[in-house]
Design goal:
With about 80 residues, the chain is α+β, with helices and mostly antiparallel strands. The protein has two helices and three strands. Strand 2 and strand 3 form a beta hairpin. It is elongated. About 10% of the residues are buried.
Length: about 80
């Protein structure tokens, strides 16, 4: 299956594949990969896991910044 995506997403896919080499058939260019069709659903799950981790980190950073703006300190 041909996947066309932003280079940042492609980098994530390459990282995921580097752990087990079970997703990518061919790396075509900065924006395209050929993925094993049978592995596409699992790759989508992995990408969703990464997205959730990023969102949780951003929320955590936002909460820490909000607390800091209120005059509270994590060291207090």
């Amino acid at each position: 299956v041909l996947i066309e995506c932003d280079p940042s997403i492609k980098a994530i896919i390459l990282k995921i594949d580097s752990e087990s080499h079970e997703y990518i058939v061919e790396d075509l260019d900065d924006y395209a990969l050929v993925i094993k069709e049978s592995q596409l659903p699992r790759l989508k799950e992995k990408l969703e896991e990464v997205r959730m981790v990023v969102l949780l980190r951003e929320k955590g950073d936002s909460l820490r910044n909000d607390v800091g703006a209120c005059g509270y300190s994590a060291n207090a």
